[in-house]
Write a structure and sequence with these properties.
The protein is of the alpha/beta class and 275 residues long. The protein contains ten helices and ten strands. It has one domain: Spore Coat Polysaccharide Biosynthesis Protein SpsA, Chain A (Alpha-Beta Complex), CATH 3.90.550. The protein is globular, with a radius of gyration of 19 Å.
Length: 275
């Protein structure tokens, strides 16, 4: 069988997708990846013993496209550890790190390769969160996080594998904000980043359980991040005042004010508990 890497003259791109109970969005995510106009890719699915349909969906895609999809199951559950593992087993010259609840246009990889061909070390892919279509509490969570609009932060997502490994990959001790830490490390090392036009859609499951879990991880991650970087570098990370955000959220979404207040109370409690 002809390997993916030798199938054409294009450089091989390794797409790394960390997984954990990703069954709700994984099918759509993988379909978007497999539909890329840039064909010379391999897809590395890095799981950590999911308990839903994630493994079955992953193996189905591996069976359908064995020359393109590979599935791994590791013990470490944080995203950074899965991405680092993927980088080690990858065969590609370039790495693209995507989350399993993100959907992209079929020109994403093609656009990225054209940008880096101009001399850049990495591409930043803007991401916008999809508002929940129903559920009072889900909307409260969303508005508490996005009173200024959906996030469009750009961190290195598509980069040379050699650069990723030279920087030591992502810090496996940092939960939730490991991409911010890697962006700081990337910029401080003097590497060049350029954004692209394609926008990823982030289809998060926003509910109270998600909010409590992510708030605790975010608080821990921010604490580690503050210790790791000097005051001159940390402000690059978005550290909007939680009280000011609360005021703006409640002012713009009066109907959701009680729920928004509950969400911010949970986030504030997480910050205190992590100290």
């Amino acid at each position: 069988m002809t390997s993916v890497a030798s199938s054409n003259a294009q450089p091989l791109v390794s797409v790394i997708v960390p997984l954990y109970n990703s069954g709700r969005t994984l099918e759509k995510c993988l379909d978007a990846i497999n539909s890329q106009s840039y064909r010379n890719i391999e897809v590395l699915l890095i799981d950590s013993s999911s308990t839903d349909s994630t493994r079955d969906i992953s193996l189905k895609w591996c069976t359908r496209f064995p020359e393109r999809f590979r599935y791994y199951n590791i013990q470490k559950k944080l995203q950074a550890a899965k991405r680092n593992f993927g980088a080690k087993v990858a065969h590609g010259e370039w790495l693209l790190t995507l989350d399993s609840d993100m959907y992209y246009s079929n020109t994403l990889v093609e656009e990225s390769t054209k940008k880096v061909a101009k001399g850049y070390d990495a591409v930043g892919i803007p991401v916008k969160d999809i508002p929940p279509s129903r559920g009072y509490l889900a909307k409260c969570v969303f508005y508490s996080l996005h009173w200024q609009g959906s996030k469009t932060e750009q961190f290195p997502n598509f980069y040379k594998r050699s650069v990723y490994l030279a920087l030591g990959g992502q810090d496996e001790t940092i939960p939730y904000v490991e991409d911010k830490d890697f962006a700081l490390k990337f910029r401080s090392a003097g590497y060049k980043l350029i954004p692209i036009n394609s926008i990823g859609l982030h289809d998060q499951s926003v509910n109270l359980r998600w909010m409590v879990y992510k708030s605790s991880l975010f608080a821990i991650g921010e604490k580690v991040l503050a210790k790791k970087w000097s005051k001159q570098i940390v402000p690059v990370v978005n550290r909007t005042s939680i009280f000011y955000s609360l005021f703006q959220s409640m002012r713009k979404n009066v109907y959701y004010a009680p729920g928004v207040f509950l969400v911010f109370f949970i986030r504030l409690l997480a910050k205190f508990v992590s100290k």
